[in-house]
């Protein structure tokens, strides 16, 4: 009520945010803090020119969301909150340090499907892509924005096909730039998988995207989650195009079938990886020429091994 009585007075809003922040460590106050997210974001929107207030508000929201996630509470922030956050993103689109914090907040917000849908409704996608293009070198921004794109692409009510399609080259650029950073590469592979599932890739994307995903698998072969999501992304590409299947077989950096064998032997105790590899192989054998090649590579032997390892799966 103290903050709502004086929206236009920056000092009042700053004091209000600082006062709320003093309750972050108090477990009994947590349910009340959850109800304050709209007040905090509105204060940020009204005073977008004040970077100090933006930083304090963003820090407090991060604290509240972190606590919520720890307690298994999913915060479905509404459209007005999403709109306020987008307003802040646009006002401070050049401030790399603050954007790093803000993109982390957007990633945490988008964990809720309702909140992800609200971010999409207010038009966040072009802004995310613009931020990624400008700050392709920034690890935090790339990791967070790819995670948000994944959430937006898997959101059930998604109708923004054109917006998501424009995310494909940018996400590929992130993966290319950060191939050797397993954490970011994993986030980008997941985003590409979701975009492929949505049918956002054009015919001309299939071959280069398949080659890029193979590079990510080679360079991060020890990361089970990346291997799993990379293979699921490849399976989605192969389902759409024989070109992608042939690109895997004939990759200039080495046979994709050999890579599949290596990845299985590295992660033979991980059912999720085995399942993703089987899905990929199943999509590949839909094409006669590809199946003949896989037979000549003794892939049936690998399938027998997987069947022995996971007899009940």
TrEMBL record:
<protein>
    <recommendedName>
        <fullName>non-specific serine/threonine protein kinase</fullName>
        <ecNumber>2.7.11.1</ecNumber>
    </recommendedName>
</protein>
<dbReference type="GO" id="GO:0005524">
    <property type="term" value="F:ATP binding"/>
</dbReference>
<keyword id="KW-0808">Transferase</keyword>
<dbReference type="GO" id="GO:0004674">
    <property type="term" value="F:protein serine/threonine kinase activity"/>
</dbReference>
<keyword id="KW-0723">Serine/threonine-protein kinase</keyword>
<keyword id="KW-0547">Nucleotide-binding</keyword>
<keyword id="KW-0418">Kinase</keyword>
<dbReference type="InterPro" id="IPR016024">
    <property type="entry name" value="ARM-type_fold"/>
</dbReference>
<keyword id="KW-0067">ATP-binding</keyword>
<dbReference type="InterPro" id="IPR011989">
    <property type="entry name" value="ARM-like"/>
</dbReference>
């Amino acid at each position: 009520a103290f903050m709502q009585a004086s929206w236009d007075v920056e000092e009042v809003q700053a004091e209000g945010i600082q006062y709320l922040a003093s309750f972050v460590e108090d477990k009994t106050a947590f349910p009340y803090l959850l109800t304050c997210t709209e007040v905090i974001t509105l204060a940020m929107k009204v005073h977008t020119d004040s970077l100090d207030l933006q930083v304090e508000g963003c820090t407090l929201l991060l604290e509240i969301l972190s606590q919520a996630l720890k307690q298994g509470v999913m915060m479905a922030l509404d459209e007005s909150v999403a709109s306020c956050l987008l307003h802040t993103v646009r006002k401070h689109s050049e401030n790399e340090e603050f954007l790093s914090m803000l993109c982390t907040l957007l990633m945490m917000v988008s964990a809720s499907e309702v909140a992800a849908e609200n971010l999409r409704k207010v038009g966040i996608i072009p802004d995310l892509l613009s931020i990624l293009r400008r700050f392709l070198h920034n690890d935090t921004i790339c990791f967070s924005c790819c995670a948000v794109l994944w959430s937006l692409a898997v959101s059930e009510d998604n109708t923004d096909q054109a917006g998501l399609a424009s995310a494909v080259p940018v996400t590929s650029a992130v993966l290319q730039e950060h191939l050797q950073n397993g954490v970011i590469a994993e986030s980008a592979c997941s985003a590409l998988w979701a975009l492929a599932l949505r049918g956002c890739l054009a015919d001309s994307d299939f071959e280069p995207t398949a080659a890029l995903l193979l590079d990510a698998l080679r360079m991060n072969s020890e990361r089970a989650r990346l291997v799993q999501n990379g293979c699921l992304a490849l399976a989605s590409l192969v389902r759409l195009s024989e070109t992608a299947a042939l690109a895997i077989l004939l990759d200039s950096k080495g046979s994709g079938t050999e890579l599949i064998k290596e990845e299985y032997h590295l992660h033979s105790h991980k059912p999720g990886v085995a399942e993703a590899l089987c899905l990929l192989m199943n999509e590949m054998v839909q094409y006669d020429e590809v199946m003949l090649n896989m037979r000549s590579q003794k892939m049936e032997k690998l399938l027998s091994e997987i069947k022995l390892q996971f007899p009940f799966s």
